[in-house]
Design a protein that fits this description.
alpha/beta; Spore Coat Polysaccharide Biosynthesis Protein SpsA, Chain A; six-stranded mixed β-sheet
Length: 228
């Protein structure tokens, strides 16, 4: 599988506004980030790196034999730091270590129900289609026509319905969302300051149950009930 020269990056900055210290919160017997470490450790032929500014996370990664030598600077460890900025710094730092790669597999630790099967299947789909970028998606829990937003004391639909629809079965199209679980990116794209090749991108469909992304305490409690 790794003749294409993949490596894995697990980005995990210290601190979080939505859910403080979320990567180290316990779910069952493991900390949140350990669920990603555990699945990644099963991919024996692909080098994996944690990219963090948190000493506890760096130490914990060694338990799973995940490389922690490439430290994340404070410059890309802010709440405003973009993923592109983070990956660019990682690419520049790993080059200094004389570690070469063609494709980067990005696994965010906020997706603890993602499995080794999901990761392997995404890689195989990427290889078979000779894509330049891939992002995982899932079917939406609710249709966009049912989504509302709050404006002062009122709730409004994001999308005005073209006709009165009372049953989900009457919606003419299914909807999907980027679940943030798996990204695969060609190195040259990152170096050209892009994350997606619009002409050669693949959306990889995952099961809803494997697609929960933890951003706040409510997300955490839902996942905790699933995994505990």
């Amino acid at each position: 599988m790794n003749k294409h020269n993949f490596i894995i990056i697990i980005p995990a900055r210290k601190g979080s506004k939505g859910l403080p210290n979320k990567h180290l919160l316990k779910i069952g017997k493991l900390k949140l980030i350990e669920y990603t470490f555990l699945e990644v450790s099963k991919l024996k032929k692909i080098k994996s790196f944690v990219f963090s500014n948190d000493k506890t996370i760096l130490k914990l990664s060694r338990k799973y034999k995940i490389n922690s030598e490439i430290n994340r600077s404070s410059k890309v460890s802010k709440s405003t730091s973009s993923m592109l900025e983070t990956l660019l710094e990682f690419c520049h730092k790993i080059k200094k270590k004389n570690i070469d790669f063609n494709y980067l597999i990005l696994l965010q630790p906020t997706s603890p129900i993602r499995t080794i099967h999901d990761i392997k299947k995404a890689i195989q789909v990427f290889i078979d289609g000779n894509f330049s970028s891939l992002s995982s998606i899932s079917e939406s829990l609710e249709h966009p026509y049912e989504a509302l937003y709050r404006q002062k004391n009122y709730y409004k639909f994001f999308f005005e319905k073209g006709k009165k629809t009372t049953r989900r079965q009457e919606f003419d199209k299914k909807s999907f969302f980027l679940n943030g679980s798996i990204f695969i990116i060609k190195k040259s794209l990152i170096l050209n300051k892009k994350l997606i090749d619009k002409k050669n991108h693949k959306y990889f469909l995952m099961k809803k149950v494997n697609s929960f992304d933890i951003n706040d305490n409510e997300d955490f409690e839902i996942v905790k009930r699933i995994l505990s």
